[in-house]
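Researcher: Following up on the earlier apo prediction. This time include the ligand. It's 2-oxoglutaric acid, with the SMILES given after the sequence.
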Amino acid sequence: MLDLFAEPSSELLYADRYPMRPHPSGVGHIIDVPDGELYYAPDFFNAKVSDRALQVLLANDRYPVLDTDWQNADLSSIQWQTIQWRQDVIQMYGKQIPLPRLSAWHGDSDRPYTYSRIQLQPQPWNPALDWLRDQLQAVSGVRFNSVLLNWYRSGDDHISWHTDAEPELGKNPTIASVNFGETRRFVLRRSDDHQQKIDIPLKHGSLLLMSGALQHHWQHSVPKQAKVKNSRLNLTFRVIRSDS
Ligand SMILES: O=C(O)CCC(=O)C(=O)O
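Model: Understood. Below is the ligand-bound prediction.
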């Protein structure tokens, strides 16, 4: 397994398995995986911006963002100030199963999105999300029109193996994954060979860009991590096509 838990210290690290080279912008590295493209910048957002982002995205009228046991907090009558966090449920065997994380969907109003058979109507852009999207456009050249936010309240929250291959994302989507809060493992595995894995610790302030044919050949997940007690936010910026 390729383990990226150690910070890349040179562009040649892991070159024997998947070559890495500096991104032309000078920030972060391109990881040349077969059948896809990955760009990873561990410190894309500095500590000050990242701390602020966590505070703003979780701002509410009841609990401090840090030092709250969010997994057990009563969220029923909380007023969220920036993001309307919601507990989505999926139907399985006739039962309503809560997803093991909280979510929100923001974006252009004419771009609804369906995942896990949940149809999401976007909440509007706000200054924080708009600012983040501008930073991503500078590095990716892509103007994203939607963002899915996932809040992993502790290491119990997770997301199972899947690909982001919904038709409304187009054939080879570019997806920008931004991370604030606790470091969590982001694991990729080849769809046709589950032993081939890439394990990337997505840390506070990091950016991972997935593009090319990646979603057709690699699945991804964020596994449970029992020792993790604090929150992690993940924002995946996407382009939803109008002709889907
Ligand atoms: O939290 C992450 O890093 C991944 C999120 C994800 O896989 C998704 O939103 O589809």
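Model: Residues 148, 150, 159, 164, 177, 186, 202, 220, 222, 234, 236 surround 2-oxoglutaric acid (CB under 6 Å).
Researcher: Noted. I'll compare it with the apo version next.
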